[in-house]
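Task card 7
Instruction: Convert sequence to structure tokens.
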Amino acid sequence: MSLTREKCFQPLMKLWPNINIILPQQELKAGLWCKALCHRQWYSSNKTLEMDRRFMNFSSEYYGQVTCINGHVATNFYEGGDYQRWCGSCGKQTIAACPSCHWPLRGSYRDLIHSREPDAYCLHCGKALPWTESKLDAVREVAKLVDGLTDNDRKTLNEILPDLISTEATPSTQVAALKMKSLVKKGGKVFAESVQKIIVDVISETAKKTLFP
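Output:
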């Protein structure tokens, strides 16, 4: 049985009428979205529509989220259709999907009304989301202005930052935190204060205890 792009998108367009805005047309995979969002049968006989297991479907448990590129949440209860395009706090553009893989951002639980901070990394592809990347870039930029750090120090900083920007500790977190502590001490008081302001809200408690006792 053949599954055409048009047949798959008919139920999809009812769910999200502006899907072409959220996800560029060239990035859509008919069979993939039919399974992920419409819960319809997915036909694996078409090799070009082979399921990518990186992606997850959380639509039955969570709402979508709309967040500006600086990490200010516009809504945790997005269900498709038009949405607020600009942030009321900083004026930056808002997004409803990961810029890298174009899959939806995760909002609040459907059975529990609560405010939810945006994820640091995309649940589907693992890439840093814009607000996380901006914090990484900010620390890198500050490091460039510090005379006490060498080029090797800045290289080390660039390598360990992804392990620090994580609200849950990983096996690499403690190692990265110890290396960062050494760099912060070497960079001086101004560098230490700047780093703390930038990353304190997006690092694990383990890293906080090591870096900012």
